What does this fold into?
Amino acid sequence: MPSAVLPSLALLPGPWMALPPEATLTVQAAGFRDSRGQAVAKLFRPGENVRGRGHWEQAAPIREGQAQFRFPGLEPGAYAGVDFHDPNGHGVMDHQPLLRLPSEPLGFSNGFSLGLLSGPPTFENLRFELAGPGRSLDIPVE
It folds into this structure.
């Protein structure tokens, strides 16, 4: 009688195969001057352009100068975050026509602030680490 071919146990899911733990990031944004429109938060992975579309994006209402965002199901690792006030509610950061500088209040993770000497924001400027089951991050808008 031919012997049955059994799959290798190493290929079957089970307790011996540890999946990366998932984490939830909670972003607290504060400093909004009014409640018009919405707040928008963007989250980026390494190598992504932090001045473009976020890998994850959320909109939230502004209440008493604050907004909160939850990003569940994230793998531990490096991320970068940006939030901004979107008073016209179209989900895109508006810029001044001449110099292309942001015309809406915004904030960055890792304490980065736009200035004459800061240069443009990059992933490395905004980088923070997410480890464990959850983390809270404050990103005030200016």
